[in-house]
Amino acid sequence: MAKTNANISLGSYLTTLDDNSSWGSPSSDFAFGFRPIGAIVFLLAIWLDKIPEKTIIWSANGNSLVQRGSKVELTSYNRWPASSLRTNMQQVWANNVTASGV
Questions:
Q1: 72 with 16: CB under 8 angstroms?
Q2: What is the pTM of this model?
């Protein structure tokens, strides 16, 4: 199971190099982080964490898996929390934080 967090601070990150590469929801029903797909590639995803199958319900950039060493980080962008996924120091995904109500 993922490590359950009530609040994730700006600057927090997950990496594929860490065995605990996910954040759990306060209810422990969901987790967000890296899921291994094969031996050396990963998918950034949200999954159902309380069931053995760990069913993925959302993924970022699903057509381009990332390599070991990739990192997702919570940053500040124009006052809104933002996330981005980097691999080999190149951004491969970022959330859209320009909309109101994010």
A1: no
A2: 0.74
